[in-house]
Amino acid sequence: MAYCSMADVQAIIPEVVVGSALEGKGNVLSLVYLSGGVVLAGTDPGGRMLRSTDCGATWIDVGQLGTAESILSLTYLDGVVLAGTSPGGKIYRSIDYGLTWSDIGQLGAEEYINALVSFGEEITLAGTSPGGKIYRSADGGATWIDRGQLGSETSIYSLAHISSSVVL
User: Fold this and answer.
1) Which of 43, 141, 150, 152 sits a CA distance of 20 to 30 A from 58?
2) Superfamily assignment of 6-167 in CATH?
């Protein structure tokens, strides 16, 4: 099994050679490193999921996630991968390292799942727009609770897990 850091993967993306699965797939909007050299890349336009098993040196096209046009965010924790998409504000879930995906559904009336962050105990947060809401899952993304709008914000573009009790 290969080991690679996210920096290794990000360094490869701009150097993609003609003939790879990334050619003609648009822009890579999200990346997530799973383990053992497996990396997923979410694209726009077309909402296609790309998968590498060699730290990003080669890629296969897993396919479009439902009717998504953009895969805006990806997160991984304890064998579960989640993808946030647009339009339609849907969450997709994979339990086989990104080979197959289940449509978990739209988060409220949101159109964009801009950010996902996972941290211990199967807890994941999602940042959305146009409602600027935070959604919380405590079961690996299977179900979600609306935690409300973040102040007067209409869009949440980024979330980061800093420590066991701090998320920004």
Assistant:
1) 141
2) YVTN repeat-like/Quinoprotein amine dehydrogenase (2.130.10.10)
